[in-house]
Predict the structure.
Amino acid sequence: MSVWDDLVGQETVSAVLGAAARDADALVTAAAADEPLPETSRMTHAWLFTGPPGAGRDQAARAFAAALQCVSPDRALGGAPGCGFCDGCHTALLGTHADVTAVAAVGAEILVKDMRDTVRKSFTAPANGRWQIILVEDAERLNEKSANAVLKAVEEPAPARSGCCAPPPSRTSCRPSAPAAAT
């Protein structure tokens, strides 16, 4: 089992995100060993998951977050991040990982206070994970003030931070990933 198994019909998205997770793993591993960082990487600091309702945007973002937090010893033997069993994967998938923060709408919109608190947290070092990850669920519910609050974090990220499901105003600063529509 891997974190990608539940992304039914999303083989292309799973492959792109899996490659980025492997590159992210290489970055973290090199930095921890004080080795030179890889010159090229498919990992970027912000990802935008788009698609119609039911396409699996949130599920893909959560799987990607789990792969980024994967601490499986198999990675050292060439295994891909995102085993689905280790503590990092398991807690990220359950929504209880200390370094994976999900922001969702309260009522009709995502409140600016929630985004400001989340942005502040995004500039802290990971507590026990490999990355500080922010998941903005239903980003279309960000009002103008909320979107502006998150824009700085997306455009000027701190090291070892990754945001997923970014708001519409920051689309030019994000790498797109579009799950296919459910058929």
